[in-house]
Structures are given as structure tokens and as C-alpha cells.
Amino acid sequence: MTTSDTLDAFGKLVAPDTLRIERLLPGPIDRVWAYLIDGGKRRKWLAAGEMPQAPGGEFTLTWRNDELTSPPGARPDGFSTEHSMKSRVVEMQPPHRLVFTWGEAGEVSIDLVPEGDRVHLTLVHTRIAERPARIMIGAGWHAHLDVLAARLGGDDCAPFWDTWQRLRAEYDARLPG
């Protein structure tokens, strides 16, 4: 049995405040790595922002989710067209490991492992204190990784906001209260 036979696209809580999500992406690993660290490529699936190439470097992630897919879908009430957050590189081991802060409170680690012509991505987001945030962040990472997989595979994407809203309901049902 291979990873692709057992991989579940949904994130799981591995601790009360920690979400883990895995994906098998089209490779090679250097291409996937570029989509993590290059602001222009990252903007196509997650958020813009020039990332320093060394630990300690600060940067700003800027989300423009309406630009990720065409059409973007129905943006939920209360969400603006742009959102920014300050972050800092904690660890960088090209092309295998990236760790950065998530604003003031959280931290995200992304590990990449080649598997044949594909790349196994493991993302762990820690210190998500409240259940509503875990639901939003789980649905967000899931939807953004769907866009990344489509970009890497040359596929079309479903409307981002519609996907995120559907996933938010699914994560609400899946994550413990």
C-alpha cells in the first residue's frame, strides 16, 4: 500500500491546538518548494509576499483570495478583498522543510518528501487556541492546498470561496467540540 492509497485530504487534529494536513502533489520537489517560497508563485495558491531566505527574516503574507480562481465564488460576509499578516521565517532547509510564524500566536511547518514523480507535503499548524479558528484554518489550508495541487497539475480550480464555505461546514462536523 502506498501513501497515495491511504492519504486523506482532510486535516486532523493531532493535539488540541494542532492541525495536520497532508497532500500528494505533482513534483518534482524543487518545483513544489518554489511555490512555497517564491512570493509570485505563492500568490497563485495562498498569499503574496517576498519571503526572506534565512531564519529570522520577517515578511508579510497578503491574501487576495478573490484572485485565486476564476470565478472566485461568493465571498462570505465579513471578509475583505485583502488581508495581511506579519510572519517570520523560523527554519528553512531547501527543498525539504519550511517553518514560519503565523502572526503573533501560531506556527506552520511544511515538510516535503519526494515519492516517485510526486511530492508528499505534510503541513502542521500549531497553537490554534479556539475551535472556531481551527475550523476556519482547517478549511482554509484545505482549500488553498486544493488550489496548489491544481496549479502544479495544470488543472482548473473550483471557485475558491464556494469551496472554502463547503469545507468550513465539513470541518465543523469533523473537528471535535
Written description of the protein model:
The protein has helices spanning 3-6, 29-37, 39-42, 131-153, 160-174, and strands at 12-15, 18-26, 58-63, 83-93, 97-102, 106-115, 118-126. The protein is of the alpha+beta class and 177 residues long. It has one domain (3-174): START domain (Alpha-D-Glucose-1,6-Bisphosphate, Chain A, domain 4, 2-Layer Sandwich), CATH 3.30.530. Strands 1-2-7-6-5-4-3 form a seven-stranded antiparallel sheet, covered by helices on one side. Helix 4 (131-153) crosses helix 5.
Compact overview of the structure:
By secondary structure, the protein is an alpha+beta fold. The chain contains five helices and seven strands.
What is the number of domains?
1
| Overall outline | globular
Poorly predicted parts:
1-5
Structural class: alpha+beta
- Going by CATH, the architecture would be 2-Layer Sandwich
N- and C-termini, Cα separation: 33 Å
Number of helices: 5
Binned, the helix content reads: 25-40%
Sheet with the most strands, sense and barrel status: 7 strands, antiparallel
Explain the layout of strands and helices.
Layout: H1 3-6, E1 12-15, E2 18-26, H2 29-37, H3 39-42, E3 58-63, E4 83-93, E5 97-102, E6 106-115, E7 118-126, H4 131-153, H5 160-174
Antiparallel strand pairs: 1-2, 2-7, 3-4, 4-5, 5-6, 6-7
Helix pairs in contact: 4-5
Characteristics of this structure?
177 residues, alpha+beta, Alpha-D-Glucose-1,6-Bisphosphate, Chain A, domain 4, 7-stranded antiparallel beta sheet, 5 helices, 7 strands, 31% strand
